Amino acid sequence: MDRVNLKKSDKLYRLAWTIFNAIFIRYSPVPLFKYRALLFRLWGSDVSNDGFIYPSTKVWDPRKLKVGVGACIGPEVEIYNVCQVSIGDGGLVSQHSYLCTASHDMNIKSFDLIGGDIKIGRNAWVCADCFIGPSTSIGEFAVCLARSVVVKEVVDYQIVGGNPAKAISKRKGWE
Questions:
Q1: What are the extents of the domains in the chain?
Q2: For 12-67, what is each residue's pLDDT tens digit?
Q3: Do 77 and 99 form a contact (C-beta atoms < 8 A)?
Q4: 2-170 adopts what CATH topology?
Q5: Parallel, antiparallel, or unpaired for β 158-161 and 166-170?
Q6: Which end of the chain has less neighbouring CB within 10 Å, N or C?
Q7: pLDDT tens across 124-138, in order?
Q8: What letter does residue 154 receive in the DSSP assignment?
């Protein structure tokens, strides 16, 4: 993970985003996915017009979010994206999951902010209430079972579960 430096302009941007999100996104009707995709793009996201972002999703910095065609971010998902978060075409992040791209360096007294990108592959599924840690890659068609804590790479077609997540089996019928 790399050291992260936040500028004053980043903090002002996030303040404006938080206010905008509370007014125009948070309480928008659930079926208005294209409306939310447009608003996210206006704030710098790379969100497909055919991406699905629920109104209760919390995104820390929309400029660092990429959502592919048919990808879905479910209700009450929180994305702490100090670094980039990418969700491939058809990827699914289920309700109450937490995608966390940053932490603190506990080995130095200044407790510096450090982080790394999260990449969720094409047609991968992050099931309900998962934690996905910094610098983590979830392969294509992979599955992270409910309540898993994923802090290492998950390869294509792999099914993982537990805390910490461990390989359980391969996803069949998707090859």
A1: 2-170
A2: 999 999 999 999 999 999 999 999 999 999 999 999 999 999 999 999 999 999 99
A3: yes
A4: UDP N-Acetylglucosamine Acyltransferase; domain 1 (2.160.10)
A5: antiparallel
A6: C
A7: 999 999 999 999 999
A8: B
